[in-house]
Queue: 3 jobs
Job 1
Amino acid sequence: MKQSGPRDGYGDFKMVWRTLSLYERFEQIVALVLTALIAVIIVIATWDLAKEVFTMAWKRVLDPLDHRVFQPIFGQIMFLLIALEFKHSITKVVAHRESITQVKTVLLIALLAISRKFIILEAEQYTAPTIVALAAVVVALGIAYWLIRDRDQDVVKAD
């Protein structure tokens, strides 16, 4: 029975590392550094969010029904989700399961980012054409993601 754990993963990494070209090794190193940096950002952002929520709760000003309180908190949560998705996509590159460019992941992160923008935006600060343009971007990204997703499902069905 084969054991699975960190050592086993390290052995797999060493075997794959030997087969990589110089540039592929460079990509792996950059991906590892980016993963570490994003992890640090996630930890700091989570700490700041927790601090803010607990401070607001302690001062009894945490009212999720008040949009002025809810919007920034939810914006921070969305930021963390975007960062986690971004880190996850880079981690897949480090695990050598996918190549650097994943269009579907880029589209998903863009959709999350623009959705975050809609959640935290104060409508009175923007003109109607700007809001319509943002909505058009969401629709375009959604359609592109849908088309890419369907393409991937067709490839899986063909196998």
Job 2
Amino acid sequence: MEQKQNIYNPCLFTGIIGDPEDPTDSPATFPLTLGLYIYDFVSFSTFDEVEKKIQSALSRIIKVDFMGIVEWLLGIHFQ
């Protein structure tokens, strides 16, 4: 994932995700925003395809409990 750190919040990154394990996979068309703090993170995209890509990629390398829709993380409100 090529990412760009948010200039207002150093815990937020936005970028386009692709699957580095699958050379035939094309990068997502729409961006993903990832909020990261120590071991907690939240991902957000306006498209389900992008959310599925990040969930698939993370599930292959670490055990992750996806908890569904999040509204708040560390004082950041996601709508």
Job 3
Amino acid sequence: MAHVNKVIRSINNEDASLCVDIFRRPDNTFGFEEYRREIEDNRGWFPIGDHSSYVFDSDVATLIAAKANVAWLNRMIG
């Protein structure tokens, strides 16, 4: 079976140049990653946070950790 994480929530900043994805792994653990993109560039999103190896037991714990590690995220979801 392929290792495929399923994004369960994606949160963009004000100008959609930054994003945090919260995902569930095939083993039912959770994680998150921060991405950036250049709006004028069609190459897509690039991981910038190096957070994807963190492991959490729930989506709620993952969101709390993401907010603690990604400063702009608190402005978006309080």
